[in-house]
TrEMBL record, chain B:
Keyword Nuclease set for record: no
Native organism: Streptomyces himalayensis subsp. himalayensis
Location of the region described as Disordered in the Swiss-Prot/TrEMBL record: 307-329
Name the record gives this protein: ABC transporter ATP-binding protein
Highest taxon listed in the record's lineage: Bacteria
């Protein structure tokens, strides 16, 4: 944390404040508007969930927040972190923030660990370089980190290569590496997608625990609404490079208002879904990000599209104390929200 | 031995019946018994869901039924015929009646052939004339929602994940099977595409009179599509029974743990119960007695010495556990 500012000046503003973030990528087929005007905030000690279908722009946004942009891309907008606009800092100042104060767990399962380097070096490299910690202290901290993320027998594990660990253990190590420089914000992009449900459970519990114990902020990205539901304070639903709905997790899940959020929830087979009854579909697929439609980007798939939806691009408007929706024809606040995702007999018979 | 026994089998009515199936994979470090005395059956028109963690033997079980891997021991009966010893010629004929959709749809499609040829592949092997193949291919393509010329000439790499899965389904259906084994058909797909494919399988099942074995790791998905569910752990069967009963009142502690690990969309709940600790043990040296005992919160001395057998716990619900859970509802 920066200590130049008086604490009260820092604490009045959110840790991260993103305004009109755009990341456009040049391709032979045209410009991919992967992130196209996203504004969001992450408070200190809070977890924000970001959900949306594959291709909605979650990873590009996360990487833009980390300063990792694909080739031939351009970003605009503002990314205020602890009051400083990251996009206008010098390279040296940026490197202070990225990797140190903001750390990321990447989606690509092959990428995070180097297969030919022992766990110890992968864990200590960042803290020795970024924090200037000496060799033996780094080793001691590494043991502590492995213990914190629930790796049994940490001294022995330090000498292991990644392939000697189970999938769940590897993901714990990846999280330990991200925590090594004591970040204020951890971005976890689909941290459990390739894992079994029991291991996913362990990793999600772990993320929530360290987020709370360390008073850290967390951005948890997933295509699975259920993954973020019970583990975040606030949630942002992303669609075609924009936010469709944001708000407190409780409000968004108990009373979703955007047609897309509701359609996603209805398409998710719940544990009590009545069997052999059709799931409610979302027809079609995401629009081509090089040729986005004029009006609402969800209109072609929306069962409630009105005529104005085709030419008016809806913007995020408040529908509650901490609840915003970008929809010209939002759903009424439901009276019996629990029947939304499943419907019918709770045992599904 | 955790999860053996055949008490849950329903006899001659079954279209597919598997008894004490064993599949060994010998390797340099030792032999992995990927499937260890697994028994189950599927009645005509039923859907059996198979769930369990990665490496528990789901794919191996499916492949063994089609005799795509060497069956080490056990018996397999399909439509009244014992097939575990059937020769390759007989199996080729039988595989028109038993089709499998493989775990990675894109990798299972020949990258150099257009979609219409891929779909007609099975018919070509069976020696149907070319015009018949073309007509059959066009029919199933439209039934899986890939109508028209546009898709017929596309190559697999030009398809989205959901479209590739539809092609894999069309290819399996083209030969007119009675049994369809689907190995994780929706795992790599978005919820919206997943819902399309699940609904499609349900529609086709009715239309083609199919019996389905549906392998998945998502318990919600299996719940919506299955009549019965089989829960596997480390090559063994833990529980078998009516999916509504098993989900409402799991009898095996492992089934309970799986259900408790499914994240809920209820923001106040998170999960239904406590986490399952630890990792799956190495399949090279599985625990003796009950294979789940190293992670089971209810394990006792007996679990280490004596393998539980499948037992009827409640009507239509069988579990292999010395101390099955009482009903909760
Ligand atoms: N390097 C790139 N070059 C061109 N287009 C890209 C690049 N990276 C991403 N895209 C495109 O940007 C859009 C957003 O991609 P992104 O990876 O952010 O989606 P996502 O929401 O993370 O999806 P998933 O759930 O599959 O991870 C997609 O249309 C994708 O094809
Ligand atoms: N060809 C093979 N050679 C050696 N071992 C194998 C082979 N195929 C599978 N195994 C082993 O057999 C066991 C069962 O594997 P299988 O693929 O059937 O599991 P699964 O339940 O389908 O897992 P997943 O959910 O990851 O698909 C695993 O321990 C696996 O490593
Ligand atoms: S703005 Fe219109 S088309 Fe878009 S989600 Fe709302 S109702 Fe549907
Ligand atoms: S109680 Fe014993 S037999 Fe039952 S699952 Fe646990 S360890 Fe296995
Ligand atoms: Mg992504
Ligand atoms: Mg498999």
């Amino acid at each position: 944390m920066s200590d130049e500012r008086p604490p009260e000046a820092v604490s009045t503003q959110p840790l991260l404040r993103v305004r009109h973030l755009r990341t456009h990528i040049g391709t032979p087929r045209g410009t991919v508007r992967a992130v196209d005007g996203v504004s969001l905030e992450v408070e200190r000690d809070q977890a924000l969930g970001v959900v949306g279908e594959s291709g909605s722009g979650k990873s590009v946004m996360a990487r833009a927040l980390m300063g990792l942009l694909p080739p031939r891309s351009a970003s605009s907008g503002e990314v205020f972190f602890q009051g400083r606009d990251l996009l206008s800092l010098s390279r040296k100042e940026q490197s202070e923030v990225w990797g140190k104060q903001i750390a990321m767990v990447f989606q690509d399962p092959g990428r995070p660990l180097n297969p030919v380097v022992r766990v110890e070096r992968q864990l200590t490299e960042g803290m020795r370089r970024q924090l200037g910690v000496g060799r033996s202290e780094a080793r001691g901290r590494a043991v502590g980190l492995l213990r914190e993320v629930g790796v049994p027998d940490p001294e022995r594990r330090l000498r292991n290569y990644p392939h000697e660990l189970s999938g769940g253990m590897r993901q714990r190590v990846v999280i330990a590496i991200a925590l090594a420089c004591e970040p204020d914000l951890l971005i976890a992009d689909e941290p459990t997608t390739a894992l079994d449900v029991t291991v996913q459970r362990q990793i999600l519990d772990l993320l929530r625990r360290v987020q709370r114990e360390r008073s850290m902020s967390l951005i948890l990205i997933s295509h699975d609404l259920a993954v973020v539901a019970g583990r975040t304070d606030r949630v942002a639903v992303m669609y075609a490079g924009r936010l469709a709905e944001t708000g407190s997790t409780r409000e968004v899940f108990d009373a979703p208002r955007h047609r897309y959020t509701r359609a996603l929830l209805a398409a998710t087979p719940a544990l009590d879904h009545k069997r052999h009854t059709p799931l409610r579909l979302i027809p079609g697929s995401l629009p081509d990000p090089t040729e986005l439609p004029e009006g609402c980007r969800f209109a072609a798939r929306c069962a409630h599209a009105a005529e104005e939806c085709l030419d008016l691009d809806p913007y995020l408007a408040p529908v509650g104390a901490d609840h915003h929706v970008a929809c010209a024809n939002p759903a009424a606040a439901p009276t019996a929200p629990t029947t939304l995702a499943s419907g019918g007999d709770p045992l599904g018979r | 031995m955790a999860g053996s026994g055949t008490a849950h089998l329903r006899g001659d009515k079954a279209l597919l019946s598997v008894e004490d199936l064993v599949v060994d994979y010998p390797g340099k470090a030792g032999t992995v018994q990927a499937v260890s005395k697994v028994s189950f059956d599927v009645l005509p028109g039923e859907t059996l869901g198979i769930v369990g963690e990665s490496g528990c033997g789901k794919t191996t079980t499916g492949r063994a039924v089609l005799r795509l891997d060497r069956v080490t021991a056990g018996r397999i009966r399909f439509a009244g015929e014992w097939i575990e010893q059937a020769d390759e010629r007989r199996m080729r004929a039988l595989r028109r009646q038993m089709q499998m959709i493989f775990q990675d749809p894109v990798a299972s499609l020949n990258p150099r052939r257009p979609v219409k040829d891929i779909v007609a592949e099975g018919l070509a092997i069976a020696g149907s004339p070319a015009d018949e193949r073309a007509a059959a291919s066009a029919t199933v393509m439209s039934q899986v929602g890939l109508d028209g010329e546009r898709f017929a000439d596309m190559l697999p790499r030009q398809l989205s994940g959901g479209q590739a899965q539809r092609v894999a389904i069309a290819r399996a259906l083209a030969v007119g099977p009675r049994l369809l084994i689907c190995d994780e058909p929706v795992s790599a797909l978005d919820v919206s595409v997943q819902a399309q494919i699940l609904n499609l399988i349900e529609d086709l099942k009715a239309q083609y009179d199919l019996t389905v074995v549906f392998i998945a790791h998502d318990l919600g998905v299996v719940r919506t599509i299955s009549d019965n569910v089989m829960v596997m752990y480390l090559g063994k069967v833990c529980e078998f029974g009516d999916s509504a009963e098993v989900y409402a009142n799991p009898a095996h502690p492992y089934t309970r743990a799986l259900l408790d690990s499914v994240p809920l969309t209820d923001p106040d709940k998170g999960f239904a119960g406590p986490a399952l600790e630890g990792d799956v043990p190495s399949p090279l040296s599985p625990p003796h007695g009950c294979r789940f005992r190293t992670r089971c919160p209810l394990a006792q001395d007996r679990c280490a010495t004596e393998e539980p057998q499948m037992n009827e716990v409640r009507p239509g619900q069988h579990a292999a556990c010395h101390f099955p859970l009482p009903p909760t509802t």
